[in-house]
Amino acid sequence: MWKLFRLVVRSIGLAATLTMAGADYFSTAARHRFKPSLAVRTRLLQRNSRRVLRVFASSTEISGPLPKTGLLVCNHLTYLDILLLGSLTPGVFVSKYEVRHWPVLGWFSRMSGTIFVRRERRSDVARIAREIHCVMREGQLVVLFPEGTSSDGRQILPFKSSLLEPATGTDHELFAGHITYAITEGSLENDVCYWGDMAFLPHAVKLLTRPRVAARVSFSRVQTSEASRKDLARQLHAEVVRLKIGSNMNT
């Protein structure tokens, strides 16, 4: 009974929040003659991500330096990761092309300037690397999930190095991040984490019925002299694993 009640109330709240977000995007775009800058679009994502997270009764605990520029690499558990990180700091996300057509999140992503990549196309990876470099050069933060997919959170998957080229041999700031979630009812792996062959809509319905979702995000600044993107991928992977271990010890 309570699950149904939460689902109805939060579905209404989500619809109202998305309507408000749409109006926000439209009015802001109109003020900028429908050509808002990247900085404006990332701040819009931050504002509206915070609104949506309130619908999920989400709370967040943060440790470490909050990234503002450069490149942030992070583990990836669920679509909530985008809203969570987007709510904490303005940033441009790098995402697989399929997300562009997802309900709700696809629209959010397109409006906020997300860089979409088709990983199966090697030429597309090179183009995305150039776009990442341009965004960082503008002083914006780029957020990348180098595992290449989401997981159940039990381990950090190996990092793909193909999109790390813009971070090698530059003076841009480099950050590692680790996200973990906790719920008081249900299965974290199946009700919060979104991985494998899960379908979006049934998963979102289950998530909306959970009483509360608590998130912990740990950040660290990474000092590197690695010239090879593969070496950099290994270093960043090791740092995210270290953050994961530290997060588990503090649980």
What CATH calls the topology is Glycerol-3-phosphate (1)-acyltransferase
- The unreliable regions are none
- Please report the total strand number as a whole number: 7
Total domains: 1
Work out the radius of gyration.
18 Å
Mean pLDDT across every amino acid position: 90
Termini separation: 31 Å
**Helix share bin:** 40-55%
Number of helices: 8
Classified by CATH, the class is Alpha Beta
Tell me what the CATH architecture is: 3-Layer(aba) Sandwich
**Elements, N to C (H/E):** HHEEHEHEHEEHHEH
Based on CA inertia axes, which overall geometry fits? globular
Structural class: alpha/beta
Major sheet attributes: 7 strands, mixed
Describe this structure in words.
The protein has a 7-stranded mixed beta sheet, with helices on both faces. It has a single domain, classed as 3-Layer(aba) Sandwich (Glycerol-3-phosphate (1)-acyltransferase), CATH 3.40.1130. α1 packs antiparallel against α2 and α2 crosses α3. β3, α4 and β4 form a beta-alpha-beta unit. With 251 residues, it is of the alpha/beta class. 46% of the residues lie in helices and 17% in strands.
Short key terms for the protein model shown above:
7 strands, globular, 251 residues, 8 helices, Glycerol-3-phosphate (1)-acyltransferase
SSE arrangement:
Layout: H1 2-31, H2 38-55, E1 58-63, E2 70-74, H3 80-88, E3 92-96, H4 105-111, E4 115-117, H5 122-137, E5 141-144, E6 174-183, H6 188-192, H7 200-208, E7 213-221, H8 229-249
Parallel strand pairs: 1-7, 2-5, 2-6, 3-4, 3-5
Antiparallel strand pairs: 6-7
Helix pairs in contact: 1-2, 2-3
